[in-house]
Amino acid sequence: FTEGTSLHFTGPLGAEDRIQLYDTQGRLLHSWNGTGSSELWIPREDLKSGVYLLQVTRAGERVAVIRLVAE
Q: Are 17 and 58 in contact (CB under 8 A)?
């Protein structure tokens, strides 16, 4: 993604759901809580070009890991 990316989930992400963005070194860069929407906008902002991992956690359990490439 260049300016940002929009992710769409099969159902709404509630307040107990957490979305975390990590670099390839395992450092947590950003964290969001669900807002009741099934869409999440991730702005590029200060992210350098490279690969990032997005982890989605629901009720304390990891339900998805998504690889993102920033160009």
A: yes
